[in-house]
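PROTEIN DESIGN WORKSHEET
SECTION A - STRUCTURE
LENGTH: 132
TOKENS:
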């Protein structure tokens, strides 16, 4: 599967602006912008195992496409939602538990990079990963 493998963040676009829109304080935004995030993705049919390792935490998330699950962001924001595969793109739709607002997330392989796009209240950010 195309997403399988080890990925390390290479660069970000508008990530601090996105974190600000999410309500993350300035100190956490500064740290989050330099979190040295590494992810490992393993797909088995409709089941995905994603391991995230950063300066702040290491977690393992297991989800099945189309099945609702709960997840906490590094800053503690709790979400509930699903990932689905649309063409060659993973599309995530999540609802914040604290305010009911929607966070969209997308993962797609473009060339030799994994592009993660986040959209929250009209603010879009990207994190671009290279194979590790």
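SECTION B - SEQUENCE
RESIDUE ASSIGNMENT:
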């Amino acid at each position: 599967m195309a997403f399988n493998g080890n990925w390390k963040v290479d660069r970000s676009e508008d990530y601090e602006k996105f974190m600000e829109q999410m309500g993350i304080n300035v100190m956490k935004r500064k740290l989050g912008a330099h979190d040295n995030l590494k992810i490992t993705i393993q797909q088995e049919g409709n089941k995905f195992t994603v391991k995230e390792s950063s300066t702040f935490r290491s977690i393992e998330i297991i989800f099945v496409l189309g099945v609702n699950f709960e997840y906490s962001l590094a800053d503690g924001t709790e979400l509930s939602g699903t990932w689905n595969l649309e063409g060659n793109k993973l599309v995530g739709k999540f609802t914040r538990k604290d305010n009911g607002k929607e966070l969209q997330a997308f993962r797609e392989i473009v060339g030799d990079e994994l592009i993660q796009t986040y959209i929250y209240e009209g603010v879009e950010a990207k994190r671009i990963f290279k194979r590790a």
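SECTION C - NOTES
The radius of gyration is 14 Å.
The mean pLDDT is 95.
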